[in-house]
What does this fold into?
Amino acid sequence: MQTTFPQLLIKQAAERPDAPAMREKEYGIWQAHSWSALALLVKHIACGLHQTGLMRGEHMVVVGSNRPRLYATMLAAQSLGAIPVPLYQDAVGAECIFPINNADVRFAFAEDQEQVDKLLEIRGSCPLLSDIVFDEPRGLRNYSEPGLQSLDSLIDIGKTFSSAHPDWYAAEVAKASPGDVAAMFFTSGTTGNPKGVVHTHHSLIDRAQAGADFDHLGPTEEVLAYLPPAWIGQNIFSYAQWLCCGYVVNCPESAATMAIDLKEVGPTYYFAPPRVFEGLLTSVMIRMEDAGSIKRSLFEYFMNVARAHGPARMDGKSIGLWASLQYTLGDWLVYGPLRNNLGMSRVRVAYTAGEAIGPDLFTFYRSIGVNLKQLYGSTETAVFVCLQPDNEARADTVGVPCAGVEIKVADNGEILVKSPGLLKGYYKNPEATAEVLSADGWYHTSDAGFLDASGHLKIIDRVKDVGRIKGGQNDGAMFAPKYVENKLKFFPFIKEVVAYGDQRDKVCVMINIDFDAVGNWAERRNLPYAGYTDLAQKPEVYALIQDCVEKVNADLSVDNLLAGSQISRFLVLHKELDADDGELTRTNKVRRGYIADRYQVLVDALYAGMTAQFIETAVKFEDGRSGSVSATLRLSDAKLFAPVGRAG
It folds into this structure.
């Protein structure tokens, strides 16, 4: 049995040498790379890395976008028994210092000049970093830094060594075992320095195969690799499962062309976080608002048909002859063209995870014939813990435990997991490892939730974030900030939310509007604005957001556990929360504690009952410059509803 990633590559190349393994788009043209060509490229890079000095057990940083030569470099490092450590390509240099030093990195792969400059900038703070291999030579011709070389020159070195030692590479690959470390992924570091999550070939391959078996994935699938390689989800979908199943991974030209590339590829297996699905739907609704009255009426009529019958049809249930005829006509006139426009005309399985997805959003995709489902997992569990079966996809659960997984709920509501895909440990951090891995093999997820009567897992919030209201009429009521935040983010006008209330007498939130959605809304009402800050503070926008807040409050009032979490006061922030400003992680998770400190004056003003507050905030621009954004923000009250007393 093939048990490591390089061995899986050799197996695919032997069984299907001429079949496409990867495609990449460059200058508008798709180029295919066969399994045999990829295997040969990996062999030459591995031999070149060996000649340059990369040793078994060493870590090698990889920074760049999804590209065949980046994947080949990761496989080449694994062929030598070295350990690839992908880092986020949009991270600033300072964010890379800790991972590089923590992992004692000597070797780095950089995609292009931008990544090379980043690594050279921090080299003085990373004393062990000696060798940097770059792929794209544009702009690097006159660089003469020690240890800097092109991937092409490394490949030439590897070809020469391979010719002189034809059996060496195969012998190196054969030395590996499934228990060897395969890769290390750094966590997002929401509360401190990121932690290096160590995974073996076995843990990653076992979970990849479990997910593939669950959804009957095979070599005919097409996948679009567009999320950061440093995120373990992207690694599972377009690296681990790719090598297990032998399907085709397609690499878009750039983030700017992703929507076009999605339509051109027409993936059959697709993953996106909720915000991507939200963005796609928002763009559709904006276009429909600008359409003519006949087209808009047709769309609204058949979408009502889809909402009424589409989810049941997707679940394999009978919807009756008349409804079937209506749906078929709608598919011809609306749903089919819509799926094609979204790039989802061939999607057989689509997943979302990471954050809760709004019921309306979830229902929309399933209504138009996209098999959208949810999964549950984390970096430490190699992603696949729970998956939704095709006919049991629901917006309020994250699925059932998949093969090999055991779940139990601790007395404090924390979800505990036992799985073959658990991390080996946190690198150089035995204390943190002991906190999450019990002696008897249970992983503490830090998520609060429960298994419902049908065996599906429901997530409430992070255990540490679940708090209590203190004082006021809701004294002692449960407060789940993420639950409240996600309910607000279900509205297309709201992009991000930060909620506070633990140990306070009421719940207050700070909101980021979705600039595109609210901007379109404003333009249709002839409401002029000069930019994000100006639009965010318009009285009309506050009325729009207040309506969303009060709808959430009405919904919370019928939940006897969370009725006390209704939102008393809110404000709309003057700037978008940004990872470059430290407000979000690189996976776009809110750093609630950091934001509380950064915007302490706003939090205090909300709880003090003030109606306005001036703030000036330092920001970093994309070109590296620093500046500031200032505004006088409005602070508003929201209507609260009497608890209805029904269990959630």
